[in-house]
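Thought: the user wants the 3D structure for the chain below. I'll pass the sequence to the structure tool as-is, report back what it returns, then summarize two notable features.
Action: structure_tool
Action Input:
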Amino acid sequence: MTLSSNYKIMNTNYSLTINDWLSKSEKILKANKINSSRLDCLILLEFVLNKSRVHVLSETNQKLDNKDIIKLDKYIHLRKNHLPIAYITNSIDFFRRNFYINQNVLIPRPETEEIISQALKLNLSNVMNIADIGCGSGCIGITLALELPEKNVDLYDIDDQAIGVAVKNCSNHNLKLNTYKSDLLLNMKSDYDLIVCNLPYVPNNLDVSDEVKSEPKIAVFSGHDGMKLYRTFWKQINILNFKPKYIITESLISQHDLMNQLAINSGYKLVSINNLIQTFSLAA
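Observation:
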């Protein structure tokens, strides 16, 4: 299901208030096993009406324009078929900032914000160059560039369309970061003191939700155990002439032992774990 999917307007009631539409649409989503049905309806109302949550909830008797009802019903049709709400609105919040996304990139998760938190806890006095490997939308690297304006941040991804989204987000946040196409570290343009990476880590045969099935497979799955790309990443780290002082990764908790062993084999030691996030430093 995509935003371009065919959709026909049938039997539309053109005399609906916000409350009428909210009640009707919430029932539709619930019937299709959307657990966040009310929240999703409110988000769509905010998006289409360009109004705040406070306005939507305080003006429930406001009559909706026909054109807005048509848009809203189209989006409900997409959502009931489990297209993620973020792909409908082309918008996601990450570390208190808003980012543009589309179906060419993974939807940033709240747990990934911990990469930023862990990076900011490091001693960065001797860190100048930072690389976001597998940047997707660019949310991690861009956030670090905004939080650490004195540092240089470069963005890398193997997919041209993902790089396009990252470039758009750089522009939206008034940044001019370098973006490069690269298969992990093969096209590195500099030496880096800190590498952050949220590479795909879902095993190929894992049963995922319909929402996740809407995301690009290249950004989700990575071999029989989900660690194919991370194995390649650490092998590439191992042969770098200049190894970064710090590396921060995200993976399933069940994959942490293997991630730690791969890091050790490449000359790194684990310095912290927080949920899905592991931070490694170059061993002395």
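Final Answer: Structure generated. The first strand starts at residue 92 and ends at 94. The CA atoms of residues 44 and 264 lie 47 Å apart.
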